[in-house]
């Protein structure tokens, strides 16, 4: 997997991408993504167009494939989340391309709670 990681990292790490075609999603030509790749883990931030702010986390799955989870808040205040699987490629001009299939998360139900951590050691110290 190391060679797969190196190939994807060389195409994505610390690079910005603009949406070229997403007729079914919220991100559009005004949305910019900034990717980081470290040891096979992928993170990104994105914003613009109808997206106020968003984040992605994921992993390299092959020499030219990735999988990501995303969440965002729109300029209208809607929160959205989902998944995507992508292929990293190169166009005729030598530019890196990303092509995705994606889906939204269906909201489930449940209960959970959190507590404020106090002190210098946090909750786990």
Estimated helix fraction? under 10%
Number of helices: 1
Count of individual beta strands:
7
What is the distance, rounded to the nearest whole angstrom, between the alpha carbons of the first and last residues?
Answer: 35 Å
The 3D shape can be described as: globular
From the alpha carbons, calculate the radius of gyration and give it in angstroms: 17 Å
Profile the largest sheet.
7 strands, antiparallel
- Which runs of at least 5 residues are low in confidence (pLDDT < 50)? none
- Which strands sit side by side, in order, in the main sheet? 1-2-3-4-5-6-7
Number of domains: 1
Q: Average pLDDT across residues?
A: 85
| Percent of sequence in beta strands | over 45%
Structural class category: mainly beta
- Helix-strand pattern, N to C? HEEEEEEE
Could you describe the 3D structure shown?
By secondary structure, the chain is mainly β. The protein has one domain. 9% of the residues lie in helices and 50% in strands. It has 1 helix and 7 strands, in the order αβββββββ. Strands 1-2-3-4-5-6-7 form a 7-stranded antiparallel β-sheet. β4 and β5 (65-74) form a beta hairpin. The longest helix is centred in the N-terminal third of the chain and has 11 residues, at 2-12. The protein is globular. 16% of the residues are buried. The mean pLDDT is 85.
